[in-house]
Amino acid sequence: MKELAGYIRMNKKGMKGMLLWIGIFLAVFLLSGLPVAAVGYGLLLFVAVAGGGILLDFRRYVARRVRLAEEKKSVGISLEQLPEAENPLEERYQELLAELFRQKCQAKSEYDSRYTEMVDYYTMWVHQVKTPIAAMRLLLQAEDTPDKAELAEQLFKTEEYVGMVLQYLRIGDIGSDLKIRRYELDAIVRQAVRKYSSSFIHRRLGLDYQELGCQVVTDEKWLCFVVEQILSNAIKYTREGKISIYMDPARSKTLIIRDTGIGIEQEDLPRIFEKGFTGYNGRTDKKSTGIGLYLCKRIMNKLNHRLEITSEVGKGTQVALGLDSAKLEID
Predict the structure, then answer these.
(1) Does the domain made of 181-331 have the CATH classification 3.30.930.10?
(2) Per the confidence metrics, is the pTM higher than 0.85?
(3) CA 69 vs CA 82, 83, 242, 292: distances in Å
């Protein structure tokens, strides 16, 4: 029915002309006083011939629609497979498509070039800025001032944000950076915990770490980044209490990171993985970028893992990392 409606719309003028011609034909023959049978035979013959032609033309129309639908899948790569134009008007349309396609390819090439230059520049910037950060840390270790711990904490945050820039740049091409192997989950999580050990001490937070005893098929670097981001958020929004890390006994290979922090508003939970979304806590803290959880979600999707967050205001937040769904080939 869809094809028939489209065919009628495309040939509406021709069909109206045909009906007009039939009306004139009937009027002339009837006014001439010819027998009705003669008029009927002539009209029947015309309808049979015209109907056959319309039927054949409709079949060609449907065949062209089917072919165009198939070529739609490859039109983003080339226009060479388009059906040949049957009239000058179709030729003009194909010329217009070819020009638009050329302009699109040119714009994409220019965008890719600019994006590559930007990534190269910021990658170089990240590596360069790490040098003065390391130098400041060494100078800070040599100093003995009352603000030393706070300065070290702020320097650590600066290094964190610099590292996040690099991961944000790499996330678009994460597929070429993955090294999928079987890892001990304890080794990955402990690596992240060691990184934030000074933050635990500075904020006087407890750590309840239970032996995980689990092997996972994943990428060590990217999963470690996800765990680091979650720990960073837990530490940032937990003023007192502890952070617990353990395996969920009810779900296969599900790592739980739970804090006793301020929690997340229920209306914010559906949007916490959106890029740039900071929510009520971020607006109150005024230091949240809204990038960390966005990156975590994208990375977990790339690794075919699950990331779920539940929270209650005033009681804390629980993050569940489902690591049993990886269907990737091991290097």
Answers:
(1) no
(2) no
(3) 10, 11, 58, 41
